[in-house]
Amino acid sequence: MKKSVFLGTAAAATLLAGMGMAQEGSTLTQVKERDELNCGVNTGLVGFAAPDASGNWTGFDVAYCRALAAAVLGDPAKVKFVPTTGQTRFTALSSGEVDVLARNSTWTYSRDTDLNLDFVGVNYYDGQGFMVRSDLGVTSAKELDGATICIQTGTTTELNLADYFRANNMAYTPVNIDSNAEGEQQYMAGACDAYTTDASGLAATRAAFADPETHIILPEIISKEPLGPAVRHGDSNWGDIARWTLNALIAAEEYGVTSRNIEELVRSSENPEVQRLLGTTDELGAMMGLDAEWARRAILAGGNYGEIFAANIGEQTPIGLARGLNAQWTQGGLLYAPPFR
Amino acid sequence: MTDIRATATPPFRLSMLVNDQRYRSLTFQVIVFILVMAAAWWLVDNTIRNLALMGKSFDFGFLFQRAGYDIPQTPIPYTADDSHLRASVVGLLNTLIVAVLGCIAATVLGVIVGVSRLSKNWLFARLMTVFVEIFRNMPLLLWILIIYAVFTEILPPPNAFRGEAATSGMILFDHVALTNRYTALPTLGMTNDPGSLDLGARITFNWATIAFVVALVGGWIVRRMIRAWAQDVQDRTGSRPTTWWMSLAVMILPSLLLIWYFGLHLVPPSLQGFNFTGGLNVSNSLVALWLALTLYTAAFIAEIVRAGILAVSRGQSEAAFALGLRPNRTMSLVILPQALRVIIPPLISQYLNLTKNSSLAIAVGYMDLRGTLGGTTLNQTGRELEAIVLMMLTYLVLSLIISAGMNVFNARVKLKER
Ligand SMILES: N[C@@H](CCC(=O)N[C@@H](CS)C(=O)NCC(=O)O)C(=O)O
Q1: ipTM score of the complex?
Q2: Is residue A19 part of a domain?
Q3: Are the CB atoms for A129 and A60 separated by under 8 Å?
Q4: Residues A81 and A197 reside in one and the same domain
Q5: CA A198 to centroid of ligand 1, rounded, Å
Q6: For the segment B271-304, what is each residue's pLDDT rounded down to a tens digit?
Q7: A19 touching chain B per CB within 8 A
Q8: Which of A42, A122, A126 should be mutated for ligand 1, with most atoms under 8 A from CB?
């Protein structure tokens, strides 16, 4: 009898467990029900994602999250920013803690396949560089043999670094750090000779220094780092929304749609591509479960790609990054949004 | 007849499972057992389903893939081309290094502080109390971070030791340099290097090291034999031969001979390029972690030692004095053997704590097991569950080994009732 009681309980438990697992619903419905987008960002990298003095998050990656929230929820303010480190970011995404990850993350093969992420595009074409103090007298990464180098753990950076030094027959001592802030502190104290990460991150880090001119970024770029937003693998519809929100921002720049002239273009644009993008003809939004004006709101949130770039990391900001590879394809860059039709 | 039998064993009713004393405890045990099993079942089932839902499998194949990352402190040869498994082993060795160093230092410091707290010198005893209260009442993580930050911010970078206008100098006859990255120590050089024993998997032991170990262990065994002989003579003749110089000779002479034979000497580190080379660079992350673990655990051990000594009743030492034993002999022959049996069991817990606490290493970038297997490897391969399970098992086995070893020791010192 005892045995049958046991089996019965076990069976009941299994049933309960099964029910607990019942379909959680798509990411889109979850976000809408919550009426808030959970966006994974970095812990603080001025220009990309950092809270300002009053606690508002601003930055290049933040602007993408706001555009996505505007497209889906109609309000760019309905975002909860979740700071993640190099080590925690992918777990945060795959466990469902965040709906989208916009954290200077490099699109790599194994992350796309083995880690079960889906990168929805590239919002910044980058590469890994080195920063040193100018008084160190080093002018090339090839002169760093024997140096102590600060790197963030859990990044592509540490893998590239190992490969680069081996390929060039050089030795180094890594100092593993967990966040950009910690790296900055170690580097400033002279606990490492060089700090290495994505060149954009170096520029942003240096801009925050009290004496940026006493540090130089070495000319070598040792890797390709296409940075982009990522979502969980398996929810293609949500992936589409994330992908086309990014594309909408890029296409808007290409077609000259800005946050300032958008209302006017909605009324008067004769360009059929712009009309489709802004939802005045065809119903593109409905094809992925949104309304007709999703892209309009996304662009209004912080402007088109060019406006976001200029406001957060462009040459007029302390970070001072040139467009370079991140110019439109029409300007000799790599940005190329597929057609909206 | 039938009636009588019915009253002797009433028919079984379900309510008896709860009301009848004979069944009650059994009933509850079965219920609890079922609940525990159901919970475990639910956990495992849920995990498997969720893994399947995320498209993940449970397999340890990643351990044999190329690791691709470098580790600052490698007790055995390791490069980025090695496997994640080897990286994990390097991490485990780093854990062991800091755990062993920590346990030794914490025991020494703990015993000193614990005994000092009982000192008759009022000021001294109070100072020790302050030490204990400060270190055991603040989180360990804070201590690790504070000590590390102090090293990083206060000590000079290697650069400061360079050239004519150096602002910092090496200490101990130019053999040691304290920098904000590491402590550069001299290494041992040999003019007559006997080569190494190759254990395979690129793990080697220098023959000289082996020779020293053999000499020390051999010396220790001979010393025991000498003492046994002295005891024997004492039992037979009543007077104990003086043996201290013999003991000293067998312990030290062979080593001196080996030093001379191998031409052992110190090779001081020298500043070359960005860093000190040629010596042994002990990273500040290791030193900070070690110091913090030592101070923190020593505070607890001090209390254990104090309690152990106080547990031996005063009558014992008074009796020993009455027999004419000198104070230090009283301590080593009467008090300590009795105190030890109170001290050892909680001491085991402290060693286990220290070993597990060493996983806070990640806070200062010391690449222990948590930093390699549970950190970079986990992150680069995305094998969270596998890495965590493996790490938990490793810590479990490590703890079991430590407590097994200490229990053997405990069995030897515990009160033998005759
Ligand atoms: N792109 C690399 C590195 C990403 C990374 O960690 N970037 C740093 C510097 S650019 C960062 O965002 N740090 C901010 C923080 O620590 O919160 C990767 O995806 O692995």
Answers
A1: 0.81
A2: no
A3: no
A4: no
A5: 7
A6: 888 888 888 899 999 999 999 999 999 999 999 9
A7: no
A8: A42
A124 forms bridges with which residues in the sheet? A227
A159 and A302 belong to one structural domain: no
Which CATH number is correct for B84-186+268-413, 3.20.20.390, 3.30.450.40, 3.40.1190.20, 1.10.3720.10?
Answer: 1.10.3720.10
Does B362 sit within 8 Å of A2, measured CB to CB?
no
Query: Do residues A120 and A135 both lie within one domain?
Result: no
**Ligand 1 centroid vs B134 CA: distance in angstroms?**
37
B68 contacts on A by Cβ (under 8 Å): 159, 162-163
A20 touches chain B (CB under 8 A): yes
Q: How far is CA B313 from CA B8, B113, B336, B385, in A?
A: 57, 21, 12, 52
* A105-142 per-residue burial string, b: 16 or more CB within 10 A, e: under 16: bbbbeebeebbbbbbbbbbbbbbbbbbbbeebebeebe
Q: Provide the residue ranges of all domains of chain B, joining segments of one domain with +.
A: 2-53, 84-186+268-413
The residue range of the domain holding A295 is 27-125+227-331
Of A163, A166, A190, the CB nearest to B159: A190
Question: Is residue A4 a part of any domain in this protein?
Answer: no
Instruction: Kindly determine whether residue B152 and residue A177, on different chains, have CB atoms separated by under 8 Å.
Output: no
Q: Rounded distance, CA B108 to CA A189, Å? A: 33
Report pLDDT for B1. 47
Q: What number of other Cβ atoms are within 10 A of residue A59's Cβ?
A: 27
Q: How far is B367 from chain A (nearest CA, A)?
A: 8
Are A327 and A294 in a shared domain?
Answer: yes
Chain segment B101-152, per-residue pLDDT in tens: 999 999 999 999 998 888 888 898 999 999 999 999 999 999 999 999 999 8
Q: How far apart are CA B132 and CA A307, in angstroms?
A: 59
Q: What global pTM score does this model have? A: 0.84
Are the C-beta atoms of residues A37 and A31 closer than 8 Å to each other?
yes
CB of residue A157 inside a 6 A radius of ligand 1: yes
Average pLDDT over residues B81-101: 95
Size of interface A-B (CB pairs under 8 A): 130
| Among candidate residues A190, A223, A256, the one where a domain is terminated | A223
